[in-house]
Amino acid sequence: xxxxxxxxxxxxxxxxxxxxxxxxxxxxxxxxxxxxxxxxxxxxxxxxxxxxxxxxxxxxxxxxxxxxxxxxxxxxxxxxxxxxxxxxxxxxxxxxxxxxxxxxxxxxxxxxxxxxxxxxxx
Length: 122
Known about the structure:
Layout: H1 2-19, E1 28-31, E2 34-37, H2 42-49, E3 54-64, E4 84-94, E5 101-108, E6 111-120
């Protein structure tokens, strides 16, 4: 009897844990009345949000070059330049004060690819 109750309770806890929303990266960030979103470039983010509090170089990542198409009738892809390109990865931190959360923006090359929150500002 106790074993059956334990299994039922364990199953319910697992289902609740699976249904709970997990922490995910956000697609947009508000800077005053302006909004930046993933896919934006560094210049746009800097012009809308100002200079970041901190910029950290996180390394280099290799990415496949963007394919081109020689003509509309052909499905053959071709690459202009090297097939793999090394791109710098930077983490920009924005501190909007003690009543707001820190924002960490991850750039690969010039493209904003991730926006995360990271504790209270200061």
